[in-house]
Amino acid sequence: MIRANATSLQLQTEADMSKAIHETGHTPVQRDTFYEPIRALENTPAENEAEPPSGKSKVMEDNLATA
Hints:
About 35% of the residues lie in helices and about 10% in strands. With about 70 residues, it is α+β, with helices and mostly antiparallel strands. The longest helix has 10 residues, at about 15-25.
């Protein structure tokens, strides 16, 4: 039996994803569950950046300590 036991967090913020899409020359669009556009993120990625999380999780701290 093979298990996927990841020991590190997987995280991509909206700002990171928006920046990556902008770098390809495309405009990121937020969509609903029916794939209908909700809003286009036409601003530069720096303007869309979200605030970093205010608290630190124990899981993240444990993973950072082993990196």
